[in-house]
Design goal:
globular, 51% helix, mainly alpha, two-stranded parallel sheet
């Protein structure tokens, strides 16, 4: 089962979180508008749903949290944002490089 989940690898959460938070709030506002206009109820924001909050931390923390998430919910595929709105492309390039080299190799 696949899921979309925002994942950020950083050694300085305090410094990077405000920028990430703003991008995530914007993204969720857009998704919220889509859901408000959709006549069907697909369980958006329902209790007991699979969490889709941001995973953020150093490589070790992100690996641990992703591994637990994958095993708990039977996740087979995760899509994450390549460049959320308002985030510097260089910041995201570093994040994606670290995700690919320091986190993903440890996940099964």
């Amino acid at each position: 089962m696949g899921i979309i989940r925002s994942v950020y690898v950083t050694d300085d959460v305090e410094k990077d979180w405000p920028t990430i938070r703003e991008a995530e709030r914007f993204r969720m506002g857009v998704y919220g508008a889509f859901m408000a206009e959709t006549p069907d109820d697909y369980g958006w924001g329902s209790e007991g749903g699979i969490p889709q909050n941001v995973i953020i931390g150093n490589a070790e923390e992100v690996t641990k949290e992703l591994s637990e998430f994958i095993h708990l919910y039977g996740i087979t595929d995760i899509a994450t944002s390549g460049l959320p709105p308002g985030i510097d492309p260089e910041f995201m390039a570093r994040n994606l490089e670290r995700l690919a080299s320091e986190v993903i190799p440890h996940l099964k």
